[in-house]
Amino acid sequence: MVNKPAPDATRRSEKSRRAIYDAALSLVGEVGYPKTTVEGIAARAGVGKQTIYRWWSSKADVLLEAFLDLGEQAAKAAGHEPYTLPDTGDLAADLKAVLRATVDELVDPRFEVPSRALAAEGVVNEQLGREFVAKLLEPQLQLYVDRLRAAQDTGAVRGDVDPRIALELFVSPLAQRWLQRTGPISYDYTDTLVEYALHGIAPR
Amino acid sequence: MVNKPAPDATRRSEKSRRAIYDAALSLVGEVGYPKTTVEGIAARAGVGKQTIYRWWSSKADVLLEAFLDLGEQAAKAAGHEPYTLPDTGDLAADLKAVLRATVDELVDPRFEVPSRALAAEGVVNEQLGREFVAKLLEPQLQLYVDRLRAAQDTGAVRGDVDPRIALELFVSPLAQRWLQRTGPISYDYTDTLVEYALHGIAPR
Fold it and tell me: Which residues, as ranges, make up the DNA-binding region of this protein (chains A, B) (predicted)?
């Protein structure tokens, strides 16, 4: 069992940890993943390299936690707990609300710049891409799976639908417009995706 | 008016052109976009740098044409003309056929490796990303727009649907699974996307 640190030490290390996250995210956004180093993160955060290696084993580990923290901060700023999706009983309204919050996050430079650097690396670096998808992206997608399963229980979604595929009808178009800049991103756009995904484009 | 070259010269320059395309695609797949140079492409193709500059103004131009050529070759190999989508009158069957052919292309290393290198660069290099989307990706997406408009004329798609958004319901999920490796790619998967996109996931 690890001894509980004194309050002052906890506060100090929490401050260092946040400085290291900020340094890692800003650095990867500026120079890209391949040129980001633990040394560079340490220098920018104003800590010794050993401070980083005490807590993390690699730059990928630091960045993974920095992005997890960024996601939690964004969720709190948007006024909801991280790792949950609203369930008001109105599936369309709930999905639209979550996607609108995602639009806000995607166009926020604090999120966008480092996230693009990481996403670009993940496209060509299979190991990194798979690790970040497994630890960052897939857990978020599973929240949609949970919400769609609840909707199947209430009859708002057909029971024969695979929720893991269904969520992609509204999540992936937004992701592609953001990643590849294939079109503008707006609330109207994501609202439309939800409508089409729920009801299809063929005559009802 | 330009004089028509003698047949031998045409054949020679067609051969050089193809060698340059192959060199550009293999090089970008191996070293990534930033480290690909006109000099490197020329060396690998066995031509002088000036031969490349006679036809193209930059490595981006060479790559753009190489990818256009690759797409045309793939279309011919799949047994259809490039720049058209089938219209048998059965929208679901036509979309499934095109997406199955896209699956084949996405998992073909000759396409996948250079395309990943270019897509990764486009995520962080806005100018390049926008140029390649405008010249390579958007023209392909417009073929879906045309097919969905034809389906609106026959009543297979509702008249109030925006075809440019609707196509993303089946194209973007496949694109994201390929780009970010968020899930396996198969014919069953793309068939399911078409079904959900046409009929939605809510009870009919």
Answer: 37-56
